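Methods — Computational structure assignment.
A single polypeptide chain was analysed. Its primary sequence is given first, followed by the predicted tertiary structure written as structure tokens.
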Amino acid sequence: MSDTTNDVRATWTGDDDVYDVVIVGAGAAGLSAALVLGRSRRRVAVVGAGEPRNAPAAHMHGFLSRDGMAPGELLAVGRAEVAGYGVDLFENRVDRIDPGFVVGLDGGVVLRTRRVVVATGLRDELPDLPGVRERWGRDVLFCPYCHGYEVRDAPIGVLGTHPGAVQHALLIRQWSHDVVLFTHTLDLGAPERERLAARGVTVADGVIKRLVVAEDRVCGVESVDGRVFPRRAVFVVPRMVPHDTLLTELGCARDENGRVSTDDAGRTSVFGVWAVGNVSDPKALVITAAGQGAAAAFALNLDLVAEDVERAMADHTPAEHGDHSHPAPQLALSD
């Protein structure tokens, strides 16, 4: 946001114990920002508790050159890369961010910084159905771009536990000819049923009792009336709740959807506070979040350069009379 509604800028006097940027969150977005800022020779700290959203998944997909890599491996490589540029890494939780900025970590550690990037992600609230939580990230899935290809052409179910389930079923049909939408608690109207039928999605009415799991895999969906529909994978739209308490406590404005507002570079409405990744964009894939972190870092460094120049100008004493600039030294040439 270019127009800031709050100004909680740090009072910085060039002290060595003040970071240029503290990044809260050590996922793809936070580490990507740290990489660019570290290479910009900024003093940076990354604080992360080691609980990424995609931890249940064995592999991540759609990240060019890293397709199929385990999420934990990507983060381990990222931590090593940023540490190589002098970025400080803290495996802690952040309890608070005070105006100033003073970042309080669990255990009593306090970091002072000129700018803050919040990349704390979100949590997925899942429907309370037996089997869903247990198989989440394995064969109970959400993102077809992340996992659809791996279950292509398989019998797939979509749970009607969220208003977005109809659109999700229409989308998932791209990966399989055998998709069943289980209405569960959804009340489908005639237009929705017509669209689903035209797309080749089967509708199964009735409340779902549980997912059937055998030999460590989903093998079906059971309704309360005892019917069992063989399925190899089940998609569900979770309720995505951003970890944005730190941002809202600082006074960051929200948009019409209730999410923290940012501009294209991740600026919030509060001076010096930036938000990137799933904390402000729930639809961001890993590669998208990494790009957002990089974009924020570019803009952040320019922001800091502008402040550095202002301070240098304030400290600069121009010559009062004449031109006191020094000529370039001349090389002495000898025969």
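Note: Confidence is low (pLDDT under 50) at residues 2-13.
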